[in-house]
Design brief:
306 residues; 41% helix
């Protein structure tokens, strides 16, 4: 069965997507187009380049998640160091380890830039906070006087995964040397399930997201740091929850992630195994009930009733 896939952002919890993908592969699902935000962008990029679930799981098992918090000597100074990084670089940590790690894996498959992929194969969501616009890459490169050959896939993923304040923004120069500050795609759409929608789809678009039905924020805001955290969580979570309609839920594999958060990078083996199995069993259950023809009928009825 052919299908498109759209992956939500979710930090290290993205390991759960690998279990879900394995379940899909066992049912002979073949990916035509892929899209994602943040951690979802990592999975989408690896699948688009030709990696299978077992290969991605292997490489993730070798990844030192603690290095995703790219620290400097300032980060060694408790509290003050992080505040100085935030003031100087607009983010506490560097995110270049992710770009280097992903670039090495993509290069093994002969992929460097978006020009090395089939047209429309991969779409990455990021946020241009200099211009206040969502970026769909590589589609929006034309706005910067650039083409797919000008942007590495690993750089686009790093942009999409640059959580505000936690990571430094990516300072991106267009062909005319104008600077743009690029941050996490989740600021504007953490779950871009709409990205491949057409009136009469030839194959389904499956969404992969974590179970949540409300914005998970701290009710008490005692410090500016807590305020920042609540602002970011609200921006990332609330937008897409507002647009989760019946049609979207009907085609989405919803994966429980327990109490794990997007910035929980130092996962132990039990947590990794839990996420993987959570994704696998969620996808298996979803596929046991999925009926594309019925979904199209339901979709047309909802359109007629509007």
């Amino acid at each position: 069965m052919k299908a498109d896939a759209v992956f939500e952002g979710g930090g290290a919890r993205g390991i759960a997507f690998i279990g879900a993908i394995q379940a899909m592969e066992e049912e002979k699902v073949e990916w035509e187009r892929l899209a994602g935000t943040s951690a979802g962008a990592i999975i989408a990029a690896l699948l688009a380049s030709g990696y299978k679930s077992h290969e991605i799981r292997y490489h993730l098992s070798k990844l030192d998640f603690s290095k995703l918090r790219g620290g400097t000597f300032l980060n060694r100074i408790p509290i003050l160091g992080s505040l100085l990084e935030l003031m100087i670089h607009l983010g506490i940590y560097k995110n270049d380890y992710l770009e280097t790690w992903l670039d090495s894996l993509l290069t093994e498959k002969g992929i460097r830039t978006f020009a090395d992929l089939p047209e429309e194969k991969l779409k990455i969501i990021a946020s241009d906070v200099s211009n206040g616009e969502m970026l769909i890459l590589p589609d929006d490169l034309v706005r910067y006087g650039m083409t797919p050959v000008d942007l590495k896939v690993s750089t686009a993923v790093m942009m999409s995964a640059s959580l505000p304040f936690f990571y430094r923004p990516v300072i991106w120069k267009s062909k005319d040397r104008k600077k743009s500050y690029i941050l996490d795609g989740g600021l504007l759409s953490n779950f871009p399930i709409w990205i491949f929608d057409t009136d009469n789809p030839r194959w389904p678009t499956f969404g992969f997201r974590f179970v949540k039905d409300k914005v998970n924020i701290d009710p008490v805001i005692p410090t500016p740091l807590h305020l920042f955290k609540n602002i970011i969580k609200t921006m990332i979570q609330a937008h897409d929850l507002r647009y989760l309609n019946k049609e979207t839920i009907e085609r989405t594999i919803q994966i429980p992630a327990g109490d794990l958060n997007a910035t929980d990078f130092e996962l132990d083996k039990d947590e990794i195994d839990f996420l993987y199995m959570s994704g696998y069993t969620s996808a298996k259950e979803f596929l046991s009930k999925w009926d594309f023809e019925q979904h199209k009928i339901n979709r047309m009825q909802r359109l007629d009733n509007k």
